[in-house]
Every structure is written in structure tokens, then in C-alpha cells.
Input
Amino acid sequence: MIKFFRKIRIQLLSENKFTKYLLYAIGEIILVVVGILIALQIDTWNDQRKTKIAEEKFFKNILLDLEKDSEKLKYYNHFHAKRIEYLDTLLVYVRNPKRSMGIEKFGKYAEPLYYSVNPTIYSRTFESAKTMGAFNNFKGKELLKDLSQYYADFVLIENSFSSITRFVESQFEPLMNTLPEGYMTENTGDLVINEENVQEFYDKVASIKDNRAINYDYERILRTPSFENYIIGDMGRTYNALGKIKVRQELLNRLKNRIEQK
Output
């Protein structure tokens, strides 16, 4: 092709057809420019195609992460709803001194309060894309902004859950430490909700026979004003956690719907 154009140029010059040569040269320049523009457009289309594929893959993986988050939030909701149920039961007995709870029932309802939740978030897809700078070429800017806020707000869940944990450690455990734990049986953990199986722990404790003659004065703890204060404080923190969980679930569902409708 280059030899062909060169041959035409030489022929025009040799025939002293300068005007035609000039027009030809301009035409050749235009042809080259058009070729470059087409090549650039093809590159642009190719880059846009790759970006679109990357963006679609990103949101597909985000949906998978949000689904995992959703399952976790369901667990957190169940955990804290049952915690309120146990606290409510204990408060009923605290405020009704004529009702006898019994050490076994007291142990079953008090034992779950030792447990709290360490929240987990599935943000690897988002953080990886953010670190690689992939968002710069994505079109869904508003959706990305809302996703960014969703992951940033996870700290609200963390703070709420850690507040319960600190309260357990600073208030509940010191109160319960005044009661010997020889009353524990393999059934003490029946109401415990935990992601890991803790039954082996209760079986182990129950397998060691307690030959002490101990009066398990749980009534003393029930009648202690600080125990009522603890129950109410824990209940307030737990309701706060449930509120944070509900808000996050609603936001998660809105994000999922928007991504699925893209």
C-alpha cells in the first residue's frame, strides 16, 4: 500500500502536475488522520468494553458480599432479640421477689449474657476495587458513593456491639463472680446463642463432679440493686444494637435492589 501511494506521488511529480499532487497530498493526509481517529475510536470502544465488563463483574461480586452481610445481620438480629428476651425474664424475677426462679433456671437465663458478638463485614470486593483505582472509570458514581457510605457506617455496628461487650466485662462478670459456678450442668448453655458450638465446654464442666456443700445464693444477686441496673443497662444497649442492625438491613436491601436493576 505504501509503495502504491509512493508510485502515484512520483508519477504526478514527473508529469509536473503540481496542483493534482498537492490535492493528492492533502487527501493522503486526511486519509491518515481519519485512520488515526478510527484507530483511537476503536481503542476507546475497546477500553469502554473492558470497563463495562469489569464494572459488571464488580457489582456481581458486591451482590455476593451483600448476601453474606445479610445473613450475618439476620444472625445479629436473632442474637440480640433473644438477649432482650433473657434480660426481660430476669427483670421479671428481680421485680417480683415472691416468685422463686431456682438456680437451674437462673443459670440458663444468666449464662447467655456472658456472650457477645464480634461483628464481621464482607468488604473485600469493594476495598480491592477501591485500592486498584477501578472506580475512576465506573459509571455508577452515585451507587458507588452509597456503597462507600454503607461500608464506612459499619463502625456504628462495631461500636454498638463493643459497648455491650465492655458492659458485660465491667458490670455483669464482677456481679456473677460472687456466685460459685458449681451449679453448672451440661444443660446450662441450652439458651446460649453462639456461632461456634460451645456445648463441649458445658459437658466438660459438668463432667467434673462437685463434692462441695455450697449454698448457691442466686437470690442475693437477683435482689442486688446493681443487678437490676445491669439488666436495664444491657437491655438499653441491646435495643440500640437492634436499631443499628435494622437501619443497616434496610440500607443493604435498597443497595441490592438498585444493583439488581442496573
